Amino acid sequence: MERLSFLLKQTSALVERAIEPGLARAGINGREFGVLTLVDAEGPASQQWLAGRIGVDRTTMVALIDALEEKRLVRRRRDPSDRRAYLLEATSAGRKTLRNARKAVELGEQQALASLTATESATLKQALQRLAQAQPPGT
Amino acid sequence: MERLSFLLKQTSALVERAIEPGLARAGINGREFGVLTLVDAEGPASQQWLAGRIGVDRTTMVALIDALEEKRLVRRRRDPSDRRAYLLEATSAGRKTLRNARKAVELGEQQALASLTATESATLKQALQRLAQAQPPGT
DNA sequence: TATTGTTATACTCTATAACTATA
DNA sequence: TATAGTTATAGAGTATAACAATA
Q1: What is the DSSP letter of A45?
Q2: Torsion of CA A43, A48, A50, A52, to 10 degrees
Q3: So what CATH class is A4-133?
Q4: Got the DSSP string for B84-96?
Q5: CA-based nearest distance B100→chain A, Å
Q6: Under an 8 Å CB criterion, which residues of B touch A?
Q7: pLDDT (tens digit, 9 = 90+) per residue, B83-111?
Q8: Domains in chain B: boundaries
Q9: What pTM did the predictor assign?
Q10: % of chain A exceeding 70 in pLDDT
Q11: Paired sense of beta strands A74-79 and A82-90, if any
């Protein structure tokens, strides 16, 4: 029996490799896909809140948002109620990119899991979701 | 439904965090545990072969083996049949460390999976193993 | 000529400390 | 005084290029 920790790391890398080319065609990378998804689903939000959600420092979030803003996928608006903070939101181009990226990711994930039966694949997802729910978000 | 790629990355990090303290008590880190496991199970082996197995460059392997050798956990012997290469092998201290580390890892993994039922946990491992077997090693 | 291990070096990713503007 | 965002900088981890010893 191979170590669970190895298998998880390996599988995570496997799925990421399967997804990357599709995301690249959509014009973003995995990290940006994560941020864009979060901004679209739970925004408008501050950089610090986003940083907390994905578990990176707020200083790391700066360059990440810089890149997304330069591609016109997110917009920085000042929060009127606290002019130190931004309210980040997805642009319409950002939402369009997100739709394309999501399709690419779904396809990549399917390919990566191709050697599993439908039942195995579903059970895998269920177990991972159970574990994620048992953890506080952003960890 | 959260994205599978996110869940995998998150869970991998979760398990790694659960394991790290135990490994640290044994005197090694996750990467070293991987190399030591491989040397013990499939050695004696060359640095380049090991590098290929865990998917890093041979230049990266140098410092990794340096650290393990400095702790007297592995030994570099010249390969008599090819004096450019080493035959790396675990020392008895290395095997002892490995036994301790393995216990710590098993405990950490159990803790990380504590919120799953025994069935879920077993199915998770099975699915991950199926995926790993479908992939060439060292990827 | 090719290959193993090695070093120097550069690149990426990340966080810590210190700054600014606001609160 | 404290906080959001920013910058400079330093540390980890990694790979590429070039070298010595050996094949």
Answers
A1: B
A2: -140
A3: mainly alpha
A4: EEEEEEE-HHHHH
A5: 15
A6: 1-16, 19, 30, 34, 37, 105, 108-109, 112-113, 115-116, 120-121, 123-132, 134-135, 139
A7: 999 999 999 999 999 999 999 999 999 99
A8: 4-133
A9: 0.90
A10: 96
A11: antiparallel
